[in-house]
Amino acid sequence: MIKITGIIFLMTVMSASILSAADDAQTLAQRHIDVIRTGNVDKLVADYADDAVALTPPGLTSSRPPTEEGIAQGKAEIKKLFELLCGPKYFTAVKGMDARIEKVSDTIAVLHWTQFKGTPEQISGIDVFVAKNGKIVTQWLGPGAPDAAKPAAKSNRPAKK
What we know:
Blueprint: H1 2-21, H2 25-36, H3 41-45, E1 48-56, E2 70-73, H4 74-85, H5 91-95, E3 98-103, E4 108-115, E5 123-132, E6 135-141, E7 145-146
Parallel strand pairs: 1-6
Antiparallel strand pairs: 1-2, 3-4, 4-5, 5-6, 5-7
């Protein structure tokens, strides 16, 4: 009986690891959004390959001159990046962001995001996730851009003469 229980346990663990390894880019991107909103950086970084690369907008990381895109390479640097994004300066925007994920293929997903939706500070952008073997191998964090000002609503009143 103990052998059968052990075999069942081993098969369950193996099945769980196979399912986890099979996560596609869309699944990883969705989990990324779910986890980043909690601020749990360790859990967030667990979905990255050991040699993953995250490319950031200019000035976000100190790895490069402020006018050039940043590069976080490897889990340690990616962890520092997300400690910054989950820190006091950015976390309100990250936690409340509106997100939609577009599956391009099993290995590529595009995250369309909006922060401060419905406010004058509204900003939108995209991130691109590339996955291999159930891990994020590359993430391009697109720079956000302020959304265009909404035109004033037209009035039905006749024009003044």
